[in-house]
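Q: Could you fold this chain for me?
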Amino acid sequence: MAIHTQQSISGFIATEPRLTYTENGIARFYARFGQEHYRREPDDTFTKLEPTFSNLVLYNASAQRAHERFAKGDSFVAEGKINTFQYERDGQQIDGEEFVARKIGHDTARTRYTVDRTPRQATGHDSTAMNRHTTPFQPPTPPDHQPSTPAMGV
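A: Sure. Below is the predicted structure, expressed as structure tokens.
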């Protein structure tokens, strides 16, 4: 079976996140995000360059959870896709793009945190998964294998 992959980004939240709702009542998280860039020098040092900025959006329950958990300055990793669009400003058509994240989390390389593993309250389609009986993962233990005859070297 093939490994499922999607586009991903990493960066930092550059503006205070906003939670708004679409005309259809769907939650929408919006923030500007930045990405740092570095140039490797001939002496193997790095020079920090100007960051670049773009738009980050999430929808539905992911938008609400992200708004509760992310603040300006947080480092993150997100999975999703780039959405390109056009809009009009001062009578001119402008091309825009945004990263529409389906999943987002804090960047573990840059963030200290604790993990809460208590199950979420079951709602909607999650209730089936929450009601299933699950057991904690137990890593396999290697068998206690003792050769019946000693190994011989050559």
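A (continued): The radius of gyration is 23 Å.
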